[in-house]
Specification:
The protein has 148 residues and is mostly helical. 73% of the residues lie in helices and 3% in strands. The protein has one domain. 21% of the residues are buried.
């Protein structure tokens, strides 16, 4: 498939959108980059092709623009498997600590506490990097909608 061909691009975007909606509904974010139906750069090109085609034909509604922007920016949440595992383990440990009615000193002796203590700084860095990537993608998306 050619992400520069409008028909191929549309099919690629539809396939990615289905997967994205499923991942969101099943709370699988961040998600593994290798779960994407196509490589990130190819999906970025396909989305750009589809949006540009709709915009030049006057069929890009505000709702569609928002939908495509969300899909484009969501690419930032597809990362290496190791980072997904780290963030998932961190989130699960935090959830576990908020659900367990333990005294503060008892919490600090749990495996969940150790996960938070040992991986907190790294999880924060990963989250900041994903946020920066999302902002870059948002800016790219807005740029290709701005007439040259």
């Amino acid at each position: 498939m050619d992400p520069l061909d409008p028909l191929d691009a549309q099919q690629m975007v539809v396939e990615y959108a289905r997967m994205l909606e499923r991942d969101i509904s099943e709370n699988r974010h961040p998600a593994r980059i290798d779960s994407l139906p196509f490589a990130k750069p190819i999906l970025k090109t396909a989305i750009r092709t589809a949006v540009t085609r709709l915009a030049t034909s006057g069929r890009l509604t505000d709702e569609l623009r928002e939908y495509f922007e969300t899909a484009y920016v969501s690419l930032a949440e597809y990362v290496d498997a190791e980072l997904v595992d780290l963030l998932t383990q961190y989130r699960n440990s935090a959830d576990q600590l908020t659900r367990e009615p333990l005294a503060a000193r008892d919490r600090t002796n749990t495996a969940a506490w150790r996960v938070l203590a040992e991986s907190g700084a790294l999880a924060g860095e990963v989250a900041r990097a994903m946020t920066a990537d999302a902002e870059t993608l948002r800016s790219e998306f807005k740029d290709f909608l701005t007439p040259a």
